[in-house]
Amino acid sequence: MPPSALTTTFIQSTFLNAIANLLAQLIDQYHRGKPFHLNPTALLQFLLYGLLSVLPNFLWQRRLESRFPGFPAWRRWGWSSALTTTARNTAASPVSSPRATNNTGVRNFLAKFLLDQTVGSVMNIVLFVVLINLLKGVGVAGCWGLLREDFRPIMMARLKYRPLVSVLMYTVIPVDRRVVFGSACGVIWGVYLSLYAVV
């Protein structure tokens, strides 16, 4: 029996997060003029953060797709079962048209895009700051203070790359592959987060 989409996402995201953290350690030590020496604690902390953040992100993407199904272009990509179902319903309905389906796809894309840039971004920044600092032994009060301090710069950095990732995710990537795709695109983002966490 093949692994579930969630299991595959856990495995692939963990692998990509490990690469991101190792690159961050390499960059950090290079800039400090030190030979590379693995910091296993930092790697483990980042991997645990990644594992804990996979499920909420997986469920978030599933929820977005169930609420706003399909891709912007009618039958263009052929990867979304939700879009295929919409196309079939369109063919069976005398009041619908391919243009109406396409308009719905565009509206749904815009809804997913905007929600990902706002609610999704806030959720992920809070998850990162709180989880990574709890894993480093910071108390709840300390995490709250760090969240207030770090939220704005992390959000500004996220807005420099996430919009492009979101456009690709909601136009060509199937829902069950979105977390892994985000992790793959986010290797550079993962390096940034690892450096931000002071590997």
UniProtKB/TrEMBL annotation:
InterPro entries: Mpv17_PMP22. GO terms for cellular component: peroxisomal membrane. It is found in: Membrane. The keyword Repeat does not apply. Keywords: Membrane, Transmembrane, Transmembrane helix. It comes from the Eukaryota. Pfam families: Mpv17_PMP22 (PF04117). The chain crosses the membrane at residues 40-60, 122-147, 179-198. It is a multi-pass membrane protein. Belongs to the peroxisomal membrane protein PXMP2/4 family. PANTHER family: PEROXISOMAL MEMBRANE PROTEIN 2, PEROXISOMAL MEMBRANE PROTEIN 2, PXMP2 MPV17. This is Integral membrane protein, Mpv17/PMP22 family. It comes from Aspergillus indologenus CBS 114.80.
